[in-house]
Amino acid sequence: MASPWIDRYEARRRLLEGLQENLERETKEAVSANAHVDRVVFRVKGAQSFAEKAEDPENSPPYIDPLIEIEDQIAGRILVYFLSDLAPIEERLRETFTTVERSERRPARDAEFGYESNHLICVIPPHVVPNGWTARADLPTTFEIQIRTLFMHAYAQPQHRLAYKAAQELPPAVRRELGWMAASAWGADRAYERVRQMLEADPPKLRSN
Amino acid sequence: MATGRSKRPPSEGPHGRRGADNRDASSRVSEEILKFGVSRLYAFAISPRKGQPQEDYSPEGGALLITAELRSIIYDNIASAAFDKRTQIDFDVDPSTRTNEVRDYVMSFAFGDGADGRVAALCIARRLAGAMDNRSTPCLLIIAGLERADERVVTFWTFPRDEAFRLRQRRSGPTIQILSDVFSKTSRLRKGAEFRGRQLRNHFLSGKALDFQADHANKELADFWIARFLQCRHGIGSETGTRLLARIVRRAYERCSDSEDQEELYSAMIAMRRSPHKRISLQQFADRYLRTDGNARDAFMRAVPNAESVNALFEFSTSTFDDALQFRVFQLRSGVFVSSPLKEIGESVQISEGPERRLSCEGTVVDERLRTRHG
User: Fold this and answer.
1) Considering the domain boundaries, does residue A209 fall inside one?
2) Confidence band, pLDDT 50/70/90 cuts, at residue B18
3) How far is B145 from chain A (nearest CA, A)?
4) What's the structural domain count of chain A?
5) How close A136 comes to chain B (CA, Å)?
6) Which domain holds residue A64?
7) What CATH number did the domain enclosing A155 receive?
8) Do A69 and B93 lie within an 8 Å CB cutoff?
9) Relative to the CA of A126, which of A79, B59, B163, B234 has its CA 20 to 30 Å away?
């Protein structure tokens, strides 16, 4: 049976899409001075994904009004080249948007490798809301931004599709393969950072033609 | 605070000729706010106490009995403040704990029981006293809580202490008495704030502020109400607001085909860059620098993205503005185009005014390109 949330969510899609477009433009402008930004992408959450999140029995505490409270209905992602780009990009975003929550998603234990990303929850600024937004009382007041390196993303995105939503515990062999990929991404990020530092400390001479 | 209900429609504010619009909006707000019941009302006489311990400070005042007359004054004040047309402010929340002292008091005042409300009101009063230094005038703080179903509205008001004359007719003749314990309801130094929402994790993160000093050139004064007392920041940040202004000016410029209108926009840009008032809204920019009923103003206002951003104050950044606009392009009678970075105008690019505006430019050529058309 279709979730009752889907129709209610879809009724606001046009407004969410208008907001997504404006926030993406605003974010691109905010980080445009940084040459190490690979891409800035915003999306509107899918209706099915929203319904699943709204009805998830593991929500603690449960949502009172998911249409307002779910904060990734509009979410943006900024991919940067190097680990050392994460902090300045986050600083730019915190200057641009009022940030109410910040979290670093990392594996719980030092010996584990897995999903890594920095997440911000920000207040939707007044100048980006599309016409008709304030007339409704069932819209969010916040949105999410994720900031990660290309290697963090290279691990996270396929893993999300393949394993994140698996209903049952993953087989040990799959978990081990995923762990190896996460560790490789973790190591690659640090290797790139070292290369960057070495080249900055001792820049190679330009080849003369 | 005066107790008579004002019959005067609200027209004060930075809107100038939009007074009629404000009256319409105000009547809509009046109708809407009347659906809320006044549930809590506190008043305190506050004196400056910056730098002093606040824990033991008990300002004179407390809970008020909500009479029909007071209820009417609260509705009238909210309607006349036209909060929907005021600048958006966001609580400066600690992102690691998602907390803000003032927001916590506001939520407690709005949703807590009677004791919670009393404690929250006292903490807000103490905080205001602690934010005021000796340059501040003692004031009356009024905190009102309104409710409708699960929705709450919390408003703060401060009215500065004033002196008033009272004329009395006695048998011996008329006398004048000076009242020194009154608070001015109409002073330009009065301030207000409104927060509304439900008890949800992402409600009560933003509000609206009424503060006629928020654009004061003195930053200490300008930041007193919104930053120091309310612990908020403007809903549109400095660079965001400046880029928005630049985008709107550019769009307006492109929409204006008449060179006089383009010149007016250009002059407005230059005037803004030189103004000591660095905190501004889009409406104030139009009011200060563009002719009423002119094409440039019309093009500017039509380029504003939405009603929510018109009155939002932001800190103007000259460098961001110059970066965003980058160039001024001149067409000479000879068919030559001269494009110049804004910062070079008046420096290496000189424009002399007179019956004809003339341009001269001097500099060292460091690059030369062939273009098929002006770019």
Assistant:
1) no
2) very low
3) 20
4) 1
5) 13
6) 4-201
7) 3.30.460.10
8) no
9) A79
The answer to the question of residue A208 being in a domain is no
Q: Is residue A156 part of a domain?
A: yes
The confidence score (pLDDT) of residue A209 equals 59
In a domain? residue A152: yes
Measured between CB atoms, does B89 come within 8 Å of chain A?
Answer: no
Q: What tokens appear for B365 in the block?
A: 């050529």
Contact A102 B95 (CB under 8 A): yes
Nearest-by-CA chain A residue for B204 = A141
Nearest to A196 by CA among A118, A104, A85, A116: A85
pLDDT in tens, A15-71: 999 999 999 999 999 999 899 999 999 999 999 999 999 999 999 889 999 999 999
| Residue among B91, B92, B201 whose CB faces A69 most closely | B201
Facing residues of B193 across strands?
B156, B209
